[in-house]
Design brief:
There is one protein chain. The protein is an alpha/beta fold. Helices cover 46% and strands 15% of the residues. The protein is built from 16 helices and 13 strands. It is globular and about 70 Å long.
Length: 401
């Protein structure tokens, strides 16, 4: 049984859980710390069918009991350090159960010599007691390797989102009249200082000022302690109706908004990954992101799907906004490139990677043999490759529709 232990049933966690449950004939269970919290106040209940438990309701004793009784137990643990992480690591160590830590990029806080040394020693200690690391994106893979962790213990395993079969390029690309309206930008995230949403607001104001018209508009989704000050900042910047605030939205509402927009904007000082980047690319939307957004760095293939700007650089972001606003063809190309990148990372690919890491452990090997996934491994890779080529040909023939 694969036991995934993580904090919340976030949409991308649910996608991975359902994929693994389906791929391993139900030999999967998810353990979440809680159903929702102040930061993620989900109202709708998950519709997935995978087995799931919540520590806030069943306690950690149930996890220990099930791990002890499961001869094929393999744990995927989300997070570097928390009470949940520490308790799970203690259990897996006592029971000698293989555990893989799945986590995003460690926060690059400035630390003194003692702090930096302690941090490095902590990661090396983890490397000795766990079976491997599932690092969210190539930048995280390289960072862990720079800490002295052996590359054979690191696997690139980003966040996984659904890639819908049907998609459409932004309406701005599809007609001359549409190109005359403002470029529609979307910013998503908790309203906190690290997100630097004021940079996006300033960039829109600057692009409009230089164009002497409303060249772009910005819609902000999310909530948090900085919302009131951001609304006041937008008003003071002279944006008028060019910047709007929608507050918190459920995941299906976020996807709908992404489909209605032209591009995503992320201006964070640092984003440990940034799943909204891959969500935007899944529906064919280009991403304008700061160089502090790990997901943007990870998915930037030099195709124009991702436009990077230096952290906090309002001028650079304003120029990128103007570029997409004035060139519908450039926006269409960026949209198609974004979708093409997303198609390389369907959720099914997660199961292929999990096959590989399970095969490195005795218990995982037993699980693979029992679920007969060894024989399906090569077939799955070929199917994904063929599907990607078919989708690319279809997109090229239909102009991304």
């Amino acid at each position: 049984m694969i036991h995934l232990v993580t904090r919340l049933p976030l949409p991308y966690h649910q996608t991975l859980c359902q994929t693994l449950s389906d791929s391993y004939d139900g030999a999967f269970v998810a353990w979440f710390a809680e159903r929702a919290n102040e930061e993620f106040p989900y109202r709708s209940a998950p519709k997935d069918t995978f087995t799931q438990h919540y520590f806030s309701e069943v306690g950690y004793a149930k996890l220990f009991k099930e791990l002890k009784a499961d001869p094929e137990a393999v744990v995927i643990l989300g997070g570097w350090s928390s009470p949940m992480t520490n308790k799970t690591l203690l259990m897996t160590t006592l029971l000698r159960i293989p555990v893989f830590i799945w986590a995003d990029h460690p926060h690059p806080r400035k630390r003194g010599w003692v702090g930096a040394r302690s941090r490095r020693l902590y990661f090396r200690f983890l490397a000795r007691i766990v079976s491997g690391f599932l690092a969210c994106g190539t930048p995280t893979v390289e960072h862990l390797a720079s800490l002295g962790i052996k590359r054979r213990k690191i696997t690139n395993f980003p966040y996984w989102v659904e890639v819908p079969k049907e998609w459409s390029a932004p309406t701005r690309c599809l007609g001359k009249d549409a190109a005359m309206r403002p470029l529609r930008l979307l910013a998503i995230g908790r309203h906190v200082p690290d997100k630097q949403f004021e940079v996006a607001i300033q960039a829109v104001a600057l692009a409009n000022k230089k164009a002497e018209r409303e060249l772009a508009e910005l819609v902000m989704v999310g909530n948090g302690p900085e919302r009131a000050s951001l609304e006041a900042f937008a008003k003071a910047s002279g944006c008028g109706t060019s910047v709007g605030f929608l507050g918190w939205l459920e995941s299906d509402e976020v996807y709908r908004k992404l489909g209605e927009t032209d591009a995503l904007v992320m201006t964070s000082k640092f984003e440990p990954y940034g799943v909204v980047v891959v969500e935007a690319m899944a529906v064919g939307r280009p991403v304008l992101a700061s160089e502090g957004v790990i997901a943007a760095l990870d998915r930037d293939e030099g195709t124009g799907a991702v436009l990077l700007h230096p952290i906090g650089d309002v001028e650079s972001l304003a120029e990128q906004i103007a570029l997409l606003a004035r060139a519908p063809e450039r926006l269409r190309e960026a949209s198609a490139a974004s979708r093409a990148t997303a198609e390389k990372w369907p959720p099914e690919r997660a199961a292929v990677i999990v096959d590989e890491i399970l095969g490195k452990t005795k218990r995982g090997g037993m699980l693979l043999r029992r679920t007969q996934r060894d024989a399906a491994y090569g077939k799955r890779i070929n199917e994904i490759s063929h599907d990607q080529e078919r989708i690319k040909r279809t997109a090229a023939a239909t102009g991304g529709r």
